[in-house]
Structure formats: C-alpha cells, structure tokens
Amino acid sequence: MIKQWKNKRFERWALTRKKGQLNYVLKQTLLIGGAVFFGYLVGFIVFDKVHSWEEY
User: Fold this and answer.
1) DSSP string, 9-47
2) pTM, full prediction
C-alpha cells in the first residue's frame, strides 16, 4: 500500500516537472499568497471593531 502511494506521488511529480519550473512557481505563489490574503481578510473581519458590512 505504501509503495503504491509513493508511486502515485512520483508519477504526479513527474507530470508537474514536465509542465516546467515557471508554472510550478506561479501556481504555488498564487495558492500560498491567496491563502495568506484570505486568512488576513478573515482575521480582519473577525477581530476588527467593525460591526456591519456597510462600514467596509
């Protein structure tokens, strides 16, 4: 079972490498940057002293 899982990961990584470094870097940057921005936005909404959507 573990070997099968590792083989799938290696196959997926081979496909990712075929797409190129620029594609990988841009995709990871957008995913991580979007997650950080979303977390910041949620934190701002939850912990700020704004009580209604009109104040945004």
Assistant:
1) HHHHHHHHHHH-HHHHHHHHHHHHHHHHHHHHHHHHHHH
2) 0.62
Locate 21 and state its tokens.
């470094």
Check residues 17 and 55 and name the one with the higher pLDDT.
Answer: 17
Cα separation values, 24 from 5, 8, 46, Å? 22, 18, 33
Per the listing, tokens 């959507």 go with: 53
> How far is Cα 28 from Cα 15, in angstroms, rounded to an integer?
15
Question: Rounded mean pLDDT of the chain?
Answer: 86
Answer whether 47's CB lies under 8 Å from 41's CB: no
Q: Is the dihedral of CA 27, 31, 33, 37 positive or negative?
A: positive
